[in-house]
Amino acid sequence: MKKITQHKIVRFSRLMMTLALLGGLKTWATSEKLSCDVIFDGKQRPAVVFAEHYSSSLQYYKIFRDLGYRVYHVLPSQVRPDYAKGSNSFEYDGVFVWSDPDVRQKIKDLNPSLVLAGVENGVPIQDELNDFLKLPYANSLHLSSARREKFLMHEIARKKGIPVPEQALTSTVEEALQWRQQHGLWPVVLKPNNSAGQDGVYIVHNEAEFRQKFYEVLGETNALGHHNTRVLIMEYLAEPEYAVQLVSRDGFSVVTDVWEYNKTKLASTGVAFYNYDRIIPIDNTRMRKVIKYAMQIAHALEIKNGPTHFEIRFNSAGEPRLVEVGARLYGGGAQVISAMAGARNQVESVVESILNPGKFKQLPREYQLKKNAYVIQLRSSKTGYMDVASFDFIKKLPSFYSMSLHPQFVQGKLMEPTTDLFDSPGSIMILHEDEKVILKDLQTILAFRDSHGFVKETK
Q1: In whole angstroms, what is the distance from residue 275 CA to residue 223 CA?
Q2: Is the C-alpha dihedral spanning 114, 120, 123, 124 positive or negative?
Q3: What's the pLDDT at 150?
Q4: Is the whole model's pTM more than 0.85, yes or no?
Q5: Nearest-angstrom CA–CA distance, 29 and 410
Q6: Domains in the chain and their CATH numbers?
Q7: pLDDT digits over 140-171, tens only?
Q8: Residue 89 burial (CB < 10 Å; 0-12/13-18/19+)?
């Protein structure tokens, strides 16, 4: 098959942070940390198929290319033009569209040994192809929907005896309000049943706000290209929120990293927005309780192979409860800085679990942090242009690690007020062993961001 270079406009999210890190990835075939003898049959190199190959999964590309794999990409049937405002440009051995009625057989003819999901819409494609091809590094097909649909994932866990937040899924605001009254809950959370990146997530405190936000979600096409025919109403759980990353092989799971989210409500939309994330230690009772709960959820959803990203909060009784789960990599490219801080790189761990399952299953289930790490998300409530030079002083801060700026804004596109994670102007990563140093730098960056120090009125 002729090689195809794909140039696709995809929606931003934390994608560009990932792209900024790609250049620093290891050459895996010679890495001391991971080595593998790829055996060729003398006729054909092994093949890997990526289903919706965006965000953090872009890091897979270099790894498998360096190992000698043929690399293919399957695009979803529904693609929103603004799914990401960055772009990726990789040379694939072939690109397929999932809506092609012959796509399954075409992929089978390639004799791939792996199918890996990139982002959310890739999960059902991955599960169906793995089942069709009878590949071992796979999860059960019959619970595939429960690994994507937020309402269903909670109900499956509930039926298996795992406590989860109260919730309802409906297309009518009166039914939703009746449910809220029956449960006596304020505030509550409204959001799409199948989306990502804080798209359409609202915390509402009264009936007027409830009605307004319900109709803002209902009927919209969300960030993943799905039409919101119903709205998910959930019991509100107080912050903080923890992002727990696992990698599994044959049901054996390892924690790669855990991050604590700090969120704020955007004045422009009321959406709960990522303020900054902080990597945290897990060698304590509270986090061990969170991790045990995450592994129970993974077992309930029959996630036996590959990466998983959980978002978990505590209820008022101090017990962990699921916000949602994604059977894919943690978004945003934080894998590299996680490893630098003393946790694990989730991408590396996935590859380890595939190529060296025996070694992977000997890994300790906990990690020991050596450094502090933060990811600060940029936002703006002003309309204007990005002043790229204004970021220069940040690069000189003691804890500065990396920065990713939205490429279209760097090129001079007008910035509108930030509405959600997908149109964030960018992100900044900081890393340092001294907590006082990194906290000082964190406050410096937040003050710069919140004063719109990077926004100018004219080009």
Answers
A1: 20
A2: negative
A3: 95
A4: yes
A5: 35
A6: 4-138 (3.40.50.20), 166-235 (3.30.1490.20), 241-456 (3.30.470.20)
A7: 999 999 999 999 999 999 999 999 999 999 99
A8: exposed
